[in-house]
Design a protein that fits this description.
Elements lengths: L1 H8 L4 H23 L9 H17 L5 H22 L6 H18 L8 H21 L5 H21 L11 H25 L5 H7 L3 H12 L6 H19 L3
Helix pairs in contact: 1-8, 2-3, 2-7, 2-8, 3-6, 3-7, 4-5, 4-6, 4-9, 5-11, 7-8, 9-11
């Protein structure tokens, strides 16, 4: 929501949004880690940081030329293929009810975004697929990342210089999109929904298999849709309610496992 608002309703460009997002996230997480335990510095690693940067940059540039519906379908389709493929390769197996739940959730995703589907621009579509694969890699690595807050802080601090370099190479330089609404969106995205949000995600990952973690993320479009209702004045429709029920019900079936 914040990214699409910044890119479509302010003067901020994708390089600037990515730079502000990564830098504000790194600063916020460094401060939290510092206050929490000054003698326990951030951890993380460069491969995770590269995946994080690739996701954030590709995501921002992709949404310049994509509508919300196709973007969500491409992003979460790529996430599913990446994480499910890794899980199956690593020996994870889904029961019949879990496969049924996964298919139900994917069908709900298509139903949720169907009215916005249109043929996407090839370059934007490729960028969003790259973003999904990078996010899948970042999530998979988080299952063994140690302290989630320190790992996320270290990853953001490593990704921040890369995002800064991208920002400075933007056509209009560091002043691209220098308006209050754009800056507020970028900072909120970095400090809260990315920095703190990803730390919470890393805290949850050790308790989930790769396939469960992939399925759980299908709830994100539902959260975003209801966020649009609460924050952007969009309306609740029967399609939204039915698609949300299918997605969340399917995710629940995958999470139940053998229970």
């Amino acid at each position: 929501l914040l990214c699409r608002y910044a890119l479509h309703h302010t003067a901020m460009g994708p390089a600037t949004f990515t730079g502000v997002r990564m830098l504000s996230g790194a600063a916020t997480l460094w401060l939290i880690v510092r206050v929490r335990a000054a003698d326990r510095p951030p951890t993380g690693d460069w491969l995770s940081a590269l995946a994080l940067f690739a996701y954030a940059a590709a995501f921002s540039f992709a949404y310049v030329g994509l509508a919300a519906g196709p973007g969500a379908l491409l992003l979460f389709g790529a996430v599913q293929v990446t994480m499910l493929g890794h899980g199956l390769w690593a020996g994870e197996r889904l029961r019949t009810t879990q496969w049924a739940g996964l298919l139900l959730a994917l069908a709900g995703l298509v139903a949720l975004v169907l009215p916005g589907l249109e043929a996407p621009a090839p370059a934007s579509a490729a960028l969003m697929l790259l973003a999904g694969m990078a996010w899948g890699v970042y999530s998979l690595r988080g299952r063994n990342g140690g302290d989630p807050l320190r790992a996320t802080a270290g990853n953001f601090m490593r990704a921040a210089p890369l995002a800064l370099g991208l920002w400075l190479m933007a056509p209009h330089g560091a002043l691209d999109g220098a308006d209050l609404a754009g800056w507020a969106s970028g900072i909120a995205s970095g400090a809260l929904t990315s920095g703190v949000g990803y730390a919470l995600w890393y805290a949850a990952l050790p308790g989930l298999s790769s396939t469960q973690a992939a399925a759980v993320q299908l709830s994100v479009p539902v959260i975003a849709a209801f966020g649009g209702v609460l924050l952007l004045g969009e309306t609740i429709t029967l399609r939204l309610l039915l698609a949300s029920a299918a997605i969340l019900g399917g995710v629940a079936a995958v999470l139940r496992g053998k229970a």
